[in-house]
Amino acid sequence: MKILIIVTHPHLSESVVNKNWIAALEKHPTRFTVHHLDAVYTDGKINVPAEQALVEQYDNIVFQFPFYWFNCPPLLKQWLDEVLLYGWAYGSSSGKKMQGKKIALAISLGAEEADYQRSGKFKYSLAELTRPFELTFAYVHADYKGIFAQFSAGPESDSQFNEESAKKYLSFLEQL
Known about the structure:
Blueprint: E1 3-7, H1 17-26, E2 32-36, H2 37-40, H3 48-56, E3 60-66, H4 74-83, E4 102-108, H5 126-129, H6 131-139, E5 143-150, H7 159-174
Parallel strand pairs: 1-2, 1-3, 3-4, 4-5
Helix pairs in contact: 1-7
């Protein structure tokens, strides 16, 4: 079954890991549809009906983004606020368009995994920090499948690190 990958990265041209993930996904166009929000909405004005129509075509959706200030980039937050509307995603007999869809997150993080522990630099796990996503997807009755996380992702990442990261990401997607 084909997977919709919704990518949000305000500085994709400077990214190493996310660009590598996208390149790996684009090698399999029959398995993945990559939708770049930042490329489509350069003016920040989201076409809600078009986004809803796109989402309705897929049973498996992954939101791919870098972790910014312990959250997603602003355009993804805007997308969630504007696309997951009452009467479409939840709240009425017709508001069931997200129901049962498998949803996951693919997140790149510059810090090390040890930093995201109670005893670490940030004092919270990634699962704790992304709990609002989990709750959002539960609220719209989607099937939240968790997170693929690549820690220590940065401009200094070497090609072997990036290749391994892409392989792990593809493997994660196969499990959805």
